[in-house]
Amino acid sequence: MVACSMPPVISISRLSKAYASGFEALRTIDLEIRRGEIFALLGPNGAGKTTLISIICGLVKASKGSVQVDGHDIVKDYRAARSKIGLVPQELTADAFETVLATVRFSRGLFGKRANEDHIEKVLKDLSLWDKRDSKIMTLSGGMKRRVLIAKALSHEPQILFLDEPTAGVDVELRRDMWQVVRALRDSGVTIILTTHYIEEAEEMADRIGVINKGEIILVEEKAELMRKLGKKRLTLHLLAKLDAIPEALAPYRLDLSAGGTEVIYTYDTQAERTGITALFKDLANAGIRFKDLHTDQSSLEEIFVNLVRGRA
Ligand SMILES: Nc1ncnc2c1ncn2[C@@H]1O[C@H](COP(=O)(O)OP(=O)(O)OP(=O)(O)O)[C@@H](O)[C@H]1O
Ligand SMILES: [Mg+2]
Fold first, then answer.
1. By CB neighbour count within 10 A (0-12 exposed, 13-18 middle, 19+ buried), where does 121 fall?
2. CA 312–ligand 1 middle distance (angstroms)
3. Which of 126, 160, 172, 308 counts the most CB atoms within 10 A of its CB?
4. Which residues surround ligand 2, an ion (CB under 5 A)?
5. By CB neighbour count within 10 A (0-12 exposed, 13-18 middle, 19+ buried), where does 169 fall?
6. What is the pLDDT along the chain (313 residues), one digit of tens a residue?
7. Ligand 1 atom with the shortest distance to the CA of 44
8. Nearest CA owner, ligand 1 atom 26
9. Is 25 in the pocket of ligand 1 (CB under 6 A)?
10. Ligand 1, atom 9: nearest CA belongs to which residue?
11. Are residues 166 and 150 in contact, defined by beta-carbon separation less than 8 angstroms?
């Protein structure tokens, strides 16, 4: 675990972006990225994920606010800030006629770093691209092209890696390989910020999760904490007779009455020693409440996400 007292590796302060059209893509974003973490930025299409990353990487100019990357202001100290960063863009762009090896070498050169064949070889091997090193980019599959983009982003040994939708359009098996690569990078000390539509990916990979919607960060939470909140289950009892109100005697269970008084919902912690279900059934019987059926379901990150986003729509 990363100590919280360490200064953040990225500090975003009061950041806003209005595009030339006047469209406000980001609205007063405040966010800190901790050194060495994997941070997943989760949000629907058009939420502002790519805009935020593009500003941090110096590709798009902010309208207001500031960003510090490892202590360097991204505008005043652009080169120093940018040298810390590797970016894997959302769009597949690569020089079609170049070979894998040449394009990755060239990327390193762009950052003014001295040639280091050992590093390039390691990156290509880690990404299972070594066998393809002499192939022209245009002859590669989509998943391989995406890995070439990752190799390019790693060519200059960045401390911070942005992955904008790294596994979009990548098959399940390859996705798992990429997760392995990303984890290994984190273990080597690289801070990772990834954007994704896949809740499963955020769940699997992230130390912390931020949810962005319509240009606003609406939630930032430790994944473990989010999962703890998700460790709740819902028990729905379908009543034999309609109920107007929950009897006072059942108040401690904090039941919800729904479906016009025909359903009672009990929320409990699956990780707790006791769920309270046995006692609830006894107390329901004592209160003369009978039910004809029941079912349980579990809230998921997906559900929380959808509710959050819908709540703000
Ligand atoms: N160059 C631009 N000019 C005007 N509007 C833009 C420009 N680039 C992006 N936008 C708008 O800003 C909003 C945010 O776009 P952005 O690409 O940051 O979203 P995103 O969260 O990355 O979406 P996706 O999940 O589809 O990649 C969108 O409404 C988009 O249309
Ligand atoms: Mg995007």
1. middle
2. 18
3. 160
4. 49-50, 90
5. exposed
6. 445 568 899 999 999 999 999 999 999 999 999 999 999 998 888 999 999 999 999 999 999 999 999 999 999 999 999 999 999 988 877 678 899 999 999 999 988 889 999 999 999 998 889 999 999 999 998 888 888 999 999 999 999 999 998 877 777 777 888 888 899 899 999 999 999 877 778 888 899 999 898 999 988 999 888 776 666 788 999 999 999 999 999 999 999 999 999 999 998 887 778 889 999 999 999 999 999 999 988 766 666 666 666 655 4
7. 25
8. 45
9. yes
10. 51
11. yes
Structural tokens at position 213: 């919607």
CA distances (Å), 243 to each of 233, 282, 288, 290, 295, in order?
23, 18, 11, 10, 18
Q: Where are the beta strands (DSSP E) in 80-171?
A: 85-88, 160-164
Q: Which atom of ligand 1 is nearest to the CA of 17?
A: 12
Q: Whose CA is nearest to atom 28 of ligand 1?
A: 46
Query: Cα–chain-centroid distance for residue 276?
Result: 34
Pair of tokens at residue 246? 């929950």
Dist CA 108 CA 158 (whole Å): 10
Q: Which residue in 36, 82, 22 sits closest to 55, CA to CA?
A: 82
Q: Which amino acid is at 119?
A: H
Measured CA to CA in angstroms, residue 21 lies from 17, 24, 148 at distances of 11, 9, 34
Tokens of 254: 């904090």
